[in-house]
TrEMBL record:
One of its GO terms (biological process) is membrane fusion. This is Vesicle tethering protein Uso1/P115-like head domain-containing protein. Pfam families: Arm_vescicular. It comes from the Eukaryota. One of its GO terms (cellular component) is ER to Golgi transport vesicle membrane. It comes from Macrostomum lignano. InterPro entries: ARM-like, ARM-type_fold, P115_Arm_rpt, Vesicle_P115.
């Protein structure tokens, strides 16, 4: 594609020469088609000649995003070129020096907050040719230069709100890119976590989880649960909002048929008839519950969450899983841990568990069955 920028006399031009000529065409040409062709060629070279494109074209890529916003093709080529120089695919990571080079270019790019703001502005565009590579580029920057990119997003007006709005995009593949971006965005920075929650992240994430099939859903459910964990872990204000807005009461449905032997999820299945993805999803949701009742929380917060878990029927759903057959051992083990934390120091919940009977003949207290399971290797819960 870049042959027109080559040298004379039959000698093949070097990558640096080709990129230099294309950059000159992009910067100096007055014909929009000529500029598009030049930038398209730069994009096609941006992986093979990452060093040359990164050193010679980064400023021009930013200029395009700033001055040619009305041209979706130019913006798309610019964003895709940027993505190629700040991130590499798994095959490229095996090549010596490539991952380090991508990291260096990402670091250079995020030194200027204006650069990150340009990418954020492109996410506002509804044209998928622009929004999709903008989401991918920002996710790559967040993954590589997390702290700096997060700080620049905080200084951009409604930066977090714009990213949350992507969750309402009717195009699933665009929405899913937004979810992946939020996984990176919500790590570590408590200020961003609080802002994201105030932008209605909780109801939007729970709605997606429900629409995707709860525990039977695919990796989208897993990613939404990862975001929930990021927002709740070590963040007491967010935990309080989650509880006081009655979102705990929306969790029992996630485990609706986890106490049956049915299986309808996606992915490869294990010996118990559960898909590996379903196991992952349930383990993630159990982690969410454990964060809410963690002994590391303030005691009044933990007690309030324990009370909500008991009153909405979530504890009953978890104890039903303990008594079920065909549940994978790792899910059973984590459910036991979760139930233990839900009743720790809370007499009302302890009384509830003590009254639960296993579906055996004759019926036996669930506590007895739990004790039996500790010495029974082959059938963790032989009552069902």
């Amino acid at each position: 594609q870049a042959s027109g920028a080559g040298g004379a006399g039959g000698e093949a031009p070097s990558g640096a020469d080709t990129v230099e000529k294309l950059c000159h065409r992009l910067e100096s040409s007055t014909l929009i088609d000529d500029r598009r062709d030049a930038l398209r060629a730069i994009k096609s070279l941006s992986k093979k000649f990452r060093l040359e494109v990164g050193t010679q074209a980064m400023r021009l890529l930013c200029d395009v995003l700033e001055k040619d916003r009305s041209d979706p093709d130019l913006c798309s080529y610019s964003l895709e070129s940027l993505l190629n120089i700040v991130s590499c695919d798994p095959q490229e990571e095996a090549e010596p020096g490539q991952a380090e080079l991508c990291s260096q270019f990402a670091e250079i790019f995020v030194k200027q907050s204006a650069n990150v703001h340009l990418v954020l502005e492109c996410i506002d565009e509804t044209d998928s040719r622009v929004r999709v590579p903008a989401l991918r580029a920002l996710a790559a920057l967040l993954e590589s230069q997390t702290k700096a990119t997060q700080e620049h997003i905080l200084t951009f007006p409604q930066g977090c709100g714009r990213l949350i709005d992507v969750l309402t995009d009717q195009r699933e593949y665009v929405r899913n890119l937004g979810i992946l971006l939020l996984v990176h965005l919500t790590r570590t920075n408590t200020n961003i976590q609080k802002i994201i929650v105030f932008e209605d992240a909780f109801p939007r994430l729970l709605e997606i989880i429900s629409a995707e099939g709860c525990s039977h859903g695919g990796v989208v459910v897993e990613d939404c649960l990862r975001i929930l964990l990021n927002l709740l872990r070590s963040n007491p204000p967010n935990q309080t909002l989650f509880r006081e807005n009655s979102y705990i009461a929306q969790l029992p449905v996630f485990f609706e048929d986890a106490d049956s032997g049915d299986e309808g999820g996606a992915g490869g299945s294990d010996a118990e008839g559960w898909s590996t993805q379903r196991v992952t999803n349930v383990l993630q949701m159990l982690s969410v519950i454990r964060v809410l009742v963690s002994p590391q929380n303030a005691s009044q917060n933990t007690r309030a969450s324990q009370r909500a878990i008991l009153q909405c029927g979530l504890l009953a759903r978890l104890t039903a899983i303990l008594m079920a057959s065909g549940v994978p051992a790792e899910v059973l083990a984590e459910t036991i841990n979760t139930v233990a934390e839900c009743i720790r120091g809370y007499e009302e919940a302890q009384k509830f568990l003590a009254a639960v009977e296993a579906p055996a003949n004759p019926p036996r207290p669930a506590i007895v069955v739990l004790l039996i399971s500790m010495v029974n290797e082959k059938q963790p819960f032989p009552c069902a």
